[in-house]
Design goal:
The complex is a heterodimer of chains A (228) and B (803). Chain A has a single domain, classed as Rossmann fold (3-Layer(aba) Sandwich), CATH 3.40.50.300. Chain A is built from 7 helices and 10 strands. Chain A is an alpha/beta fold. In chain A, strand 4 and strand 5 form a beta hairpin. Chain B is of the alpha+beta class and 803 residues long. Chain B has 3 domains: 378 residues, no CATH class; 167 residues, no CATH class; 205 residues, no CATH class. In chain B, helix 2 packs antiparallel against helix 13 and helix 24 crosses helix 27. Chain B is elongated. About 1% of the residues of chain B have low confidence. Classes of the chains: A alpha/beta (228), B alpha+beta (803). At the A-B interface, helix 1, helix 2 and helix 3 of A face helix 16, helix 25, helix 26 and helix 29 of B.
C-alpha cells in the first residue's frame, strides 16, 4: 500500500535536568493513503504533541516526519506554510473558524490563501454533503456548534490535502452532533479517498477507524485494526 | 488571597506583557496631560519675565494724571509701585538728535533702566544717557562731562552727565539715544506725553481695580493705557486679542483632556475585549456581574497607581527640557527660574485626570465584561459580535484573501474600529489644533524676518548706487539692499476707507466719481527683487510680480498703517482696485495686484496708507533715484571688523544705525514663545506616535490565537504580515481621514473666529495633511513589527494553545 505518512524515531522533550519531560519517545509508524487512524490515550499522554508534530505546528527534538514522501522539517517556514495549506487539513476541538468570514469563505480559505480559484462544483458538493447548503452565507456565530464543526470539516477537505488531522473534533459536541460529525468524517474518507488521523477520547468513535494507535507516556503502540 | 478582588492584581502580575502595554498607554496619556499643563504653566512664568523685559513691569497707565489722582491711586492697597514718565520729544545733544524723557527713580527698575555708571539724575541740570551714545564718535562723553542740549523750542542749556545707563535696543537701532532728565527739570518743560504708570500687587484683581480707579476718579477710557501683553500673560486681560488666545487655549486643552480619556478608554476596551473567556470562566465559577465589574475596576485602579507616577515624571521631564533650553539660551533673563520647574497645576492635572479617566474608561468595559455569558468560557468561543452582514463575500472576491481579511478584521468590529480611529484621529486633531499657535506666533508676534537688516544707513541727501556697491564689496557683508521713500497724493474708491479713519479725519470729501479727496499723502516705498521676495511671507491677497508692476501699472497695497505707534487700518484695498497717483506729469492709474499684511518700517509722519512699487516706477513717479535707506546684513563672523569697515566708507551725512541688539532681543522674545509652542507640538506629536504604537501593539497582541489558527490553516508569514499590516493601515487611514477633516475644521474655526485681529488667513494645510498621512501610515506599519515578531517567535501550537 502507498504510504502517505511516515514517522521515524520521533522524539520530543520539554525542559532540561530535573524538569525534563519526554512527551514522545522514539515514535515510528506509517499511515497508508485512504486510511482512517484514530489515536487514543489518557490526558497528558502525548497525543496532542504527536498531532502537532504531524501537522508541522511544532518541531521535534529528534526524528523525522515524511508526508507524501517529503521530510517536512527540512522545509523553511515559507515552504512549510504553503505545504500546510496544500497537504494538511486541520480540524480543531474549538472549531477555530474565522469569525469575520461566512461559511463558504471559511471553507475555501486554504484555497484563497493559495491564490487559487475554488472548484465551485467540488465546494458545492462538500457543502451539500455537510448539510450546509442553506447556511453558505451565514457567519460562524450564527451557527450551532455542530454546524461550525461541519464547516471546519469542509475547510479541511477543500484543498484535497494529503492528510486530515483532527484533534478531538467531537470534544465540544453533544452525542447526536458527535455522531453526525464522525459519520461525515468517515464518509469523506471513503468518498474522497482521504487519509484521516483523529484524536478521540471516545472508544466508540475510535472503532470507526481502520486502525487505532494508543499513546501512553509518549510511547505509541498499535491497538488493532488492519495490519501495518 | 484574602478576597476575590485580589484576583485583579494577581491577574495583572501573571500577564506582565499585556499589563505593561496597558500601563504604558496610561503613562503616555498622563504624561501628555501633565506635560502640556506644566508647560503651559512654565510658559506663562517665562513669558511674564520676557514681557516685563520687553514692555516694562506696569499694568496700566493713566495719561496726564493730576496730583489728586496720583495720590488716590498710589494710596490704594492693591497698588505696589507707581511712577511718572514724561516724554519730552526730540532734542539735540551736542549736535546729535536724542529723545528726552524723565522717569521717577523708584520706577526705573520696572522699566528695565539700569544705571551702570554714575548716578540717576535728580538735581537741576543733570542728565543720564545710553552707553552706546556716550561712547559714540559724535558725543564721546563721560560721567561728569558737560553737554549742551537744545530743546524743541530752540533754547539751549548746559547739562552735566550724572550717569550712564544700559543700551536700549530700540533706540540704538534708530540711532537716537534716550536721554533722561531729572523730574524737577522735566516739570519745567512742555511734555509731549505724560503718563502715570501703575504696577499692581500680583494678587490684585486688576480688571476690577482698573474699573474702580476709573469710576471713582472719573477717568475716561481714552486716558487709560494698558500693558496688554503683561496683562494677557498673567490672565488679567479683557483685551480682545488676548481673550481670543485664551479661548483657543481653552479649546485646545479641552482636546488634550479628551485625548487622554480616549486613549485610556481605547486601551482598556481592547484589554477587556480580549479576555471575554477569562471573565466567562469567572462567571462559571460563580462570580456575579457586579463582582466582575468590581474586578475590572480594581484592575484599573492597580494599573493607575503604577502608571500615574511614571506619567507625571515623564511629563515633568518634558517640561524640564523646555525650561533647560530657555535657561541655557538666556541665563541672565531666566536665571531666577529654577532649572527643575515643578508645576503644581501640571502635576495635579495629571493625577486627577489620570484617575478620573481610568475610572470613566473602565466603567464601560467593566459593564461589557459583566455581560459576558458563562457559556463563552466553556465553548471557548471568544468571538466578538460581528455585524450580520451576509453579503461580505464581496471583499474576498475583490482582493487577495490576506488583504480582504485585514480590511475585514478592521471594519467588521465597528466599535474597535471606532475607538482605534478615534484615538488616532484625536492625536491628529490635537496636533493640527496646536499648529494654529505656530501660525499665530509667526504672524502675530513681530519677529525677525529674513529681510531684517543688521545695519541700516540713512541719509537726507540720499545714498548713491556707488556707495551701495562699495558696501556690498566689504568682507563679511552678506546682503545689501536699498529703499527709496517718498510721498504721493493717492486716491481710490472712498468705500475702501475704514470708518475709523473717516471718523478720525472728521469726514472725507468724496467726488462725483466715488473717489475721495485725499486728506493726507500716501507713503510710497520702492522695493527691489530681494525685498519683494521676502515680502511674500506677509502677502495676504494677490501676488507680488515685479514684471506686472513695471509693465502693467501694478502696485502693492499694505493693510496695516502705523499711526502714532499704533497699528490701525485706514483702507481696505483688494487686488484689482484702481488707485490714482498724482505725479508731476499728471494723474496716473494703477491697479492693486497684491496686499501685504504690514511692512517692516514705520513712517514718522502720519500718512493715508502705504504703497510699494519697483525702483523703476518709483523714479518715474518722483524723479528720485538715490536710496533713502540702505540695509546691510552681516554674515556671522568678525562682525565688529565689518562694522568698522562700513563706518569707514560712510561720511558724516550718513546715519549709521545698528539694529543688532534690537534684533537679538526680538529673537529672544520669539524664542521664549517658540520653545514652548514647538514644545507643545513636539510633545503632542511624540505622544500621538507612542499612542499609535501602543494601540497597535495591544491590538496585535490580543489576536495571538487568531493569528495562530490562520497559520495552521496555511497562511504563510508573508501573508500574515500583509494581513496585519492591512488591518493596521485601515485603522490608520480611517483615523487619519477623520482626524484631518475634523482638524482642518478646527483650524479654520479657530483662525477665522479668534485670530482675525492678527490678519492670519486660513489656508488648507495641504503640506500638513500630506505629512500627517505619510507619518501615520509609516508609524502604524512600524508599530506592528515588534508584536508580530514576538508572535512568530513562538511555535504555532503554542500560540493556538492546546490543539
Amino acid at each position: 500500500m502507498l504510504e502517505i505518512l511516515t514517522t521515524t524515531n520521533l522524539s520530543k522533550t520539554y525542559g532540561i535536568g530535573e524538569t525534563k519531560v519526554e512527551a514522545l519517545k522514539e515514535v515510528t509508524f506509517s499511515v497508508a493513503k485512504g486510511e482512517f487512524v484514530s489515536i487514543v490515550g489518557p490526558s497528558g499522554s502525548g497525543k496532542s504533541t504527536l498531532l502537532n508534530m504531524l501537522g508541522a505546528l511544532d518541531f521535534p527534538t529528534s526524528g523525522n516526519v515524511f508526508i507524501d514522501g517529503r521530510d517536512i522539517f527540512t522545509m523553511n517556514e515559507e515552504e512549510l506554510s504553503v505545504f500546510r495549506r496544500r497537504n494538511i487539513g486541520f480540524i480543531f476541538q474549538a472549531y477555530n473558524l474565522v469569525p469575520e468570514l461566512n461559511v463558504e469563505e471559511n471553507i475555501t480559505l486554504p484555497l484563497l490563501l493559495d491564490y487559487k480559484k475554488p472548484d465551485q462544483q467540488y465546494i458545492d458538493e462538500i457543502v451539500d454533503i455537510l448539510g450546509l447548503a442553506d447556511r453558505k452565507h451565514h457567519l460562524p456565530n450564527q451557527l450551532s456548534g455542530g454546524q461550525q464543526q461541519r464547516v471546519a470539516i469542509g475547510r479541511a477537505l477543500s484543498a484535497r490535502p494529503a492528510i486530515i488531522l483532527a484533534d478531538e473534533p467531537t470534544g465540544n459536541l453533544d452525542s447526536k452532533n458527535s455522531k453526525d460529525v464522525i459519520n461525515l468524517l468517515k464518509l469523506s474518507v471513503d468518498r474522497y479517498n482521504q487519509t484521516l488521523i483523529m484524536i478521540t477520547h471516545n472508544h466508540n468513535y475510535a472503532s470507526f477507524a481502520d486502525r487505532v494507535l494508543n499513546v501512553e507516556d509518549g510511547i505509541v503502540t498499535e491497538l488493532g485494526g488492519a495490519v501495518q | 488571597m484574602k478576597d476575590y478582588l485580589a484576583l485583579a492584581p494577581q491577574y495583572l502580575a501573571a500577564h506582565k506583557k499585556k499589563t505593561r502595554l496597558t500601563i504604558l498607554s496610561i503613562v503616555i496619556s498622563v504624561a501628555l496631560i501633565t506635560g502640556v499643563f506644566s508647560m503651559l504653566d512654565a510658559l506663562l512664568q517665562f513669558e511674564k519675565i520676557q514681557v516685563i523685559h520687553d514692555y516694562g513691569n506696569y499694568h496700566i497707565a493713566v495719561k496726564d494724571a493730576t496730583d489728586e489722582e496720583m495720590q488716590a491711586i498710589s494710596g490704594r492697597i492693591d497698588v505696589k509701585n507707581t511712577g511718572r514718565w514724561k516724554t519730552l520729544g526730540e532734542a539735540n545733544i551736542n549736535g546729535m538728535t536724542c529723545a528726552l524723557g524723565a522717569l521717577d527713580e523708584n520706577f526705573t527698575e520696572n522699566l528695565n533702566i539700569e544705571v551702570i555708571q554714575g548716578k540717576y539724575p535728580t538735581g537741576q541740570n543733570e542728565i543720564m544717557l545710553e552707553k552706546w551714545a556716550a561712547e559714540s564718535i559724535q558725543l564721546n562723553v563721560k560721567v561728569g562731562d558737560t553737554v549742551s542740549i537744545a530743546v524743541a523750542n530752540g533754547t539751549r542749556r548746559e547739562f552735566t552727565v550724572s550717569g550712564i545707563y544700559n543700551d536700549l535696543g530700540n533706540m540704538k537701532a534708530k540711532g537716537i539715544p534716550g536721554v533722561f532728565l531729572s523730574m524737577t527739570d522735566a516739570e519745567l518743560l512742555p511734555a509731549k506725553q505724560n503718563v502715570y504708570l501703575i504696577e499692581f500687587k500680583s494678587e490684585a484683581d486688576m480688571i476690577k481695580a482698573r474699573q474702580q480707579i476709573q469710576t471713582s476718579l472719573n477717568i475716561p477710557e481714552d486716558r487709560i493705557g494698558r500693558n496688554d501683553r503683561l496683562l494677557a500673560v498673567i490672565g488679567q486681560s479683557d483685551y480682545k486679542a488676548a481673550v481670543g488666545i485664551y479661548q483657543i487655549g481653552g479649546i485646545l486643552f479641552f482636546i488634550v483632556l479628551l485625548a487622554g480619556v480616549v486613549m485610556i478608554y481605547n486601551t482598556f476596551n481592547i484589554s477587556v475585549m480580549e479576555r471575554v473567556r477569562h471573565f466567562g470562566l469567572l462567571r462559571c465559577i460563580g462570580a456575579s456581574p457586579v463582582q466582575i465589574k468590581k474586578i475590572v475596576k480594581r484592575e484599573g485602579l492597580t494599573i493607575t497607581l503604577k502608571a500615574i507616577p511614571f506619567g507625571v515624571l515623564l511629563g515633568m521631564i518634558i517640561t524640564f527640557v523646555c525650561c533647560a533650553l530657555l535657561k541655557f539660551y538666556n541665563t541672565s533673563l531666566f536665571g531666577d527660574i529654577q532649572l527643575f520647574y515643578i508645576s503644581t497645576i501640571g502635576i495635579i492635572a495629571g493625577i486627577v485626570i489620570g484617575f478620573m479617566t481610568v475610572f470613566i474608561a473602565s466603567l464601560l468595559p467593566a459593564k461589557k465584561a459583566a455581560q459576558v455569558s458563562p457559556v463563552n468560557a466553556v465553548t471557548g468561543s471568544n468571538d466578538i459580535k460581528v455585524s450580520k452582514n451576509k453579503k461580505q463575500g464581496l471583499l474576498t472576491k475583490m482582493f487577495p484573501v490576506e488583504i480582504a481579511l485585514g480590511v475585514n478584521n478592521a471594519i467588521m468590529k465597528k466599535k474597535t474600529l471606532f475607538w482605534m480611529s478615534c484615538s488616532i484621529a484625536i492625536s491628529i486633531i490635537m496636533f493640527m489644533g496646536f499648529n494654529v499657535f505656530v501660525d499665530f506666533m509667526h504672524a502675530g508676534l513681530k519677529t525677525n524676518k529674513p529681510y531684517t537688516p543688521d545695519i541700516t544707513l540713512t541719509s537726507k541727501q540720499g545714498i548713491s548706487e556707488e556707495l551701495s556697491a562699495r558696501a556690498a564689496g566689504i568682507d563679511g557683508v552678506k546682503k545689501v539692499y536699498g529703499r527709496m521713500f517718498g510721498y504721493v497724493d493717492a486716491t481710490f474708491d472712498a468705500a475702501r476707507l475704514s470708518d475709523a479713519y473717516k471718523e478720525s479725519m472728521g469726514g472725507i470729501e468724496t467726488r462725483a466719481d466715488g473717489l475721495f479727496i485725499a486728506p493726507e499723502s500716501s507713503w510710497l516705498i520702492s522695493y527691489e527683487e530681494n525685498q519683494l521676495k521676502w515680502a511674500k511671507a506677509d502677502l495676504i491677497a494677490g501676488e507680488l510680480s515685479e514684471d506686472k508692476m513695471n509693465t502693467q501699472n501694478g502696485i502693492i497695497a499694505v493693510a496695516g498703517n502705523i499711526r502714532n505707534g499704533i497699528t490701525t487700518e485706514t483702507a481696505n484695498l483688494q487686488p484689482g482696485d484702481k488707485v490714482y497717483l498724482e505725479t508731476s506729469s499728471g494723474t496716473k492709474e494703477f491697479t492693486v495686484i497684491g496686499v501685504l499684511r504690514t511692512v517692516p518700517f514705520a513712517d514718522s509722519k502720519l500718512n493715508l496708507t502705504t504703497f510699494i512699487t519697483t525702483e523703476k516706477i518709483f523714479t518715474e513717479l518722483t524723479g528720485k533715484s538715490s536710496y533713502d535707506a540702505l540695509d546691510i546684513q552681516l554674515s556671522g563672523k568678525n562682525q565688529e571688523q565689518t562694522v568698522a569697515a562700513i563706518k569707514g566708507i560712510t561720511d558724516s551725512s550718513i546715519n549709521f544705525l545698528d539694529s543688532r541688539q534690537k534684533n537679538a532681543e526680538i529673537d529672544q522674545t520669539f524664542l521664549t514663545m517658540a520653545i514652548f509652542i514647538y514644545g507643545f507640538v513636539a510633545v503632542i506629536a511624540l505622544i500621538s506616535i507612542l499612542n499609535i504604537i501602543s494601540t497597535m501593539n495591544t491590538s496585535v497582541a490580543s489576536k495571538t490565537k487568531y493569528l495562530g489558527v490562520m497559520q495552521a490553516v496555511g497562511m504563510s508569514r508573508r501573508q500574515l504580515n500583509k494581513m496585519v499590516l492591512v488591518e493596521a493601515i485601515t485603522y490608520g487611514l480611517t483615523g487619519c481621514l477623520a482626524g484631518c477633516i475634523l482638524g482642518v475644521i478646527l483650524q479654520k474655526e479657530l483662525i477665522e473666529n479668534l485670530l482675525t485681529s492678527f490678519h492670519i488667513i486660513w489656508k488648507l494645510p495641504v503640506v500638513q495633511i500630506v505629512m500627517i498621512l505619510i507619518f501615520t501610515i509609516f508609524i502604524t506599519a512600524l508599530s506592528v513589527i515588534s508584536p508580530l515578531k514576538r508572535i512568530k517567535a513562538k511555535g504555532i501550537s503554542e500560540v493556538i494553545g492546546a490543539l
